[in-house]
Input
Amino acid sequence: MPLVEIFGLGIFDSITSQRGYAVVIESFPYFLGGAGYTIALTFLSLSMGMVLGLFLGLGKLSANRILYFLSTAFIDFFRGTPLFVQIFLLYFGVLPLFYDNDPISSAIIALGLNSAAYIGEIVRAGIQAVDPGQQEAARSLGMNQRQAMTYVILPQAFKIVIPPMINEFIALLKDSSLVSAITVPELMHRGDLVFANTYQATWIFASIAVIYFVITKTISTIGDKVERRLATD
Amino acid sequence: MIKVIDLYKSFEQLHVLKGVNFQVAPREVVCVIGPSGSGKSTLLRCINKLEEANSGHIYIDGKELTNPKTDINLIRQQVGMVFQLFNLFPHKSTLENITLAPIKIKELSKASADKLALELLGKVGLTDKAHVYPNKLSGGQKQRVAIARALAMQPKVMLFDEPTSSLDPEMVGEVLAVMKDLAIEGMTMVVVTHEMGFAREVGHRVVFMDDGVIVEEGTPQEIFDNPKNPRTKAFLSKVL
Amino acid sequence: MNRLARLFLSTLLVVALVFPLVGCGGEQSSEKVLKIGTNATFPPFEFQQSNEFTGFDIDLINAIAEEQGYQVEINHMDFKALIPGLQNDKIDGAIAAMTINAERLESVDFTTPYFDAGLIIAVGQDNDTILSTEDLKGKKLAAQNGTTGARYCNSVKEQDPATDVRIFDDIGLAFMELEKAGVDAVVNDLPVTSYYLATTENTKLKTVGEVFSTEEQYGIAVKKGNTEMLDMFNEGLEKVKANGKYDELYDKWF
Output
């Protein structure tokens, strides 16, 4: 056989014969199952975050002092403390007071509340980015504030917030790895468990990183397409 | 129709309106002229409460605007406004821009609203643009749509805030023509403008403002041909 | 740029280059340093108290090092990171209440045993259904990642797939989960569990059943094949046992 082929086969062999390679190949379906949890977690938390975030953003712009104070306090707290701390605080401290909380629902709540705070700011900034003249035109026609928001401001703010929202989606997906600490069987936790039993750190965490990357890259590519489509409208 | 009594308005340290008394009778067309910073736009914006006065009283068709208990949204339905920068809704077609308020506020059916909108577009000469989006319209076309949009609520008064100041010269005429037609039909109008030709030809009364007060007012002939106040004379000599 | 600025920057450059060399010189001491890895969240074997590492294992390794003429530098890390740490030469030895077993012997070498332990079950104070290891099947169990307790829980799951096994990186979190009734039992080393129940004045938890897996013994781990380091530790351990220091430490902590 030609020299290059022998050389190539040699490299292939030295890679595939490593124990780490075997561990990763064997654990891959297990990891993919974890990725499924990661994606599902992110979707559910993001949905919660978007609904709550919309109210928080509007609250921060409200003339009502109570709404303003509550929204600002919420956003300040969840953006001002580490997500890791919030996860533990909610899981062991706060949520048990309300129900017999399991890791998955606790994770969704923790991630949801955290992302709501960031989304609240995105919504607020998006609304403020809409030309003030739009508000003036809507109100001068006789619309009340709710009608102006619903039919004129928010539809325009929607287009503006799409890029930062996609960023938040990706950030949340990566941050979801933190809930491995409360034993949610998502991607990071599964890598952790396999590592503790096999010690193949490099192979395991490199492949975990690749999986995360594939997911985030897919999201950002779809996001770019969505952005471009909306821009040509 | 409009009564403004002793109006004061300041923005923080800046005093913009310093005791303005102003009246507009029904079917009257009043043109407000003056240098920039004189407060004319602010006066106009106080009339539909886009700016809130610090003191004084404003009455629209007998109802007190400055009373906090008054429903401002109801009054605004009677007062149409046309902006210097058009402020058309970019996410809606021309037709939708016009029908939005009647449908949502007056609860018109889509059919009736569309019919009304097409009539108004006919009036401003833009029926063929009904389904076009604002970003495809020229400045003059946008402003005419804006006028149609304001008229869709069938207001008793129309306020114009420098409606042609952002237009290329060749489009000014088409907008002024629409406004002239409106005046002939008997609409009560308050127009803040630099278009002296329009003021002279269409206005029933011209009001000259400077430094937060009304300096002089009268018929177009009185103001343009025979200004009495030296400040009026100084201003007119610069613009005419 | 002007002369003053140039002078200032060149001085800064010289200082930046010379300073590390000066620092290096000062660090050279006559004693050899042992980098010892541990997971300092496992009282009474290793834990942190007012910013210092302390515990039976800590005292023991310090005693051994003293006998053999070394200084100890404690490197705290996740339990599961200890063996990889040895494999990658990040640490010279690991002492962390680590049980000597066949699985681990594939990756590291152990000294002669220095402690006899075993596993015990901890449950909630009101739990009447779990009385021994037999009753663990089908329940919700928690343990620390990488420990023999975790391995035992997983073996229970193999026998009864209905068993839910939750693996935490920190034994403290596993106990908290038990207190919260998120799991039914925690399987962990006897001394650590007893210590936790005793020192936290725990009225919420209790131990049940007999100590099991009593063939469990702790050893100090070194990189596989590093006979020099292994012999050094074994020798030191011998000396410490012989001169009574070991008994002294045992009494202190147990």
Observations:
- The interface with chain A takes residues 79-80, 83-84, 87, 107, 142, 145-146, 150, 166-169, 173, 176-177, 180-182 of chain C (CB under 8 Å).
- The first strand of chain C starts at residue 32 and ends at 38.
- The mean pLDDT of chain C is 88.
